[in-house]
Amino acid sequence: MGLAFRDISKHYGAVVAIKQAQMEIEEGEVRAILGGNGSGKSTLAKVIGGLIGRDSGEILFQGKPIDFKSPKDAKKHHVIMTSQELSLFGNLTVEENICICDVPVKGKFTDRKKLKEEAVTILKRMHLESLLGKKVEELAANQQYMVELAKALVQKPKILIIDEITSALYREDVEIVDDIIRELKKTGCIVLFISHRMVELYAMCDSVTIMRNGETLGTYPMQEKTEDELLSLMVGRKIESYHGEGKHHQGTKRDVFIRAKHIPIPSYGTVESLEIGKGEIIGIAGLQGHGQTELIRALYGVSGEIELEIDGKAHKLHNAKQAVAQGFAFISGDRERDGTFQERNLSENIAAVQELVKHKKIGNAREILDSFHVRYDNPGELITSLSGGNQQKVVVGRWLCTKPRLLLVDDPTKGIDVKARGDLHEVFAELAKEGNAVIMISSDDDELVSITSMAETSRVIVMYEGKVSAVLEGDAINRENISAASMPVNTMPQEGEKKREAGAVE
Q1: Model-level pTM?
Q2: pLDDT score at 207
Q3: Rounded distance, CA 440 to CA 498, Å?
Q4: Which of 24, 42, 133, 465 has the fewest other C-beta atoms within 10 Å?
Q5: DSSP code for 252
Q6: Residue 45: exposure state from Cβ atoms within 10 A (0-12, 13-18, ≥19)
Q7: pLDDT tens track for 196-218
Q8: Could you give the CA distance from residue 492 to residue 472 in angstroms, rounded to a whole number?
Q9: Residues 230 and 261 both lie in one domain
């Protein structure tokens, strides 16, 4: 026997977080834990990782009971947890963070040579040598999550819990994680893998346990259930996931209402242009760090002055406040840094947006929370008391209630469950149907294929080294073309693509 959960329960007052959870995982097995936001996945992970105690039940590892009182206690037994809530120190270097749980010493001082050697070994294993010597606060979000994983691996886990860290990763990062997990399986390490990205679950996991409302409903071999079957089990009713390939509209004329002729991409010293149509959904794709985020932040006025033509009139935006006045909204996927006031309650987090759009009435906190199916106790509780996915729903919901003319979203569905992601896509599509525009970055190519298929007019713009490498429309919008354009070769562009002018209007 590897790892076994027997009737694990956890309550927070009247709220039942886990109810008699049952699970068995063999050594060398990768087990997916799938469920909606608030289903108890992360709570269960925190119980075994020593972050929280359980109210009842028993956990067995190799036939012996375990009951960790703290993460430090768990780590002594090589039970390691990584999560969306990063446990990194921004003012320390990458190698210092990697070895922070067991800093090598020489006498009374840190053994810097050994520390660097240990960090270099794991960074080479993850193809991340370029991060050596950098402070964590200087890194992009996906790089920070990779360092979080490196920190776990250096501790030689026997049980590794991966809780949603891949939601912040790009395709090339996920491929590295896949390789690492295959290596761990060979050593007999048990991996508990929590993710809402179905492609990752099918690629990496041997089996899947479904959770709903704190209960473990069943465990199945990963390849025996289709995505739609798993989704239906997860939400408790028949659901069909939406796959967009082959469903895009062809040749729809674009009614342009925003023209941006000079969009700066500072990290590459490049400039791009874009024309945005009414009712259009534009997906932005590419490998991490190739200018996608800079493009939409520039449109939002946070990268310095930008000149735009809106409804035929010239405008200059100097800051985000002026962008909001024009009906723009921006949602970041990095909710901790850009999205939430963590020391404030739900009502105050929602009121922050109301203060910016005083000319509109967006509704009270409870109305917004309920309309976006946020799981919460009362609007006066701290936003940090919610699960990560529910926090993201708050961030997204408060802006969508303003009905923006141009919605700029940077990987907004990280940490949101599959059903909630579909609901969010429908809201974006409805916003476009009303004549507004949505520009959305996603690290998940399948998501861009899906969301763009839901609008009458849509494109996927792929960026490479600060320039647009391809513009895909109609049937050309598929995972293969997005992937190919992310790493251009001489055969690009493929049929149906417009190579250079991202704003070209037919």
Answers
A1: 0.67
A2: 96
A3: 19
A4: 133
A5: P
A6: buried
A7: 788 889 999 999 999 988 899 99
A8: 11
A9: no
Looking at residue 267, what is its pLDDT?
85
CA distance 123 to 44: 29
pLDDT confidence band for 395 (50 / 70 / 90): confident
Residues 181 and 300 in one domain: no
Q: What count of Cα atoms within 13 Å lies in the side-chain half-sphere of residue 57?
A: 22
Q: Which three-class secondary structure string do you get for 28-73?
A: CCEEEEEECCCCCHHHHHHHHCCCCCCCEEEEEECCEEECCCCHHH
Domain that holds residue 318: 257-322+439-506
CA distances from 354 to 89, 359, 383 (A): 33, 9, 17
Interatomic CA distance for residues 259 and 129, integer angstroms: 41
Residue 387: its pLDDT value, please? Answer: 75
Residue pLDDT, tens place only, 347-384: 888 887 777 776 666 667 888 888 777 888 888 888 88
Would you state the structure tokens that stand for residue 126, as one six-digit string?
A: 């993850």
Same domain, yes or no: 213 and 265: no
The answer to whether 96 touches 107, Cβ cutoff 8 Å, is no
Question: Which residues are CB-neighbours of 226 under 8 A, at least 6 positions away?
Answer: none
